[in-house]
Amino acid sequence: MDPAGRRLVRRVDATASAAFEQAKSPADTASEELDEAWQRAYGREPDPSDAWDHAIKAVEAVLIPIVVPNQAKPTLGHVVSHLDRHGLLWKLLLPGPNDDYSVEPLVAMLRLLVA
Question: Which of 15, 48, 107, 109 places its Cα 20 to 30 Å from the Cα of 98?
Answer without folding.
Answer: 15
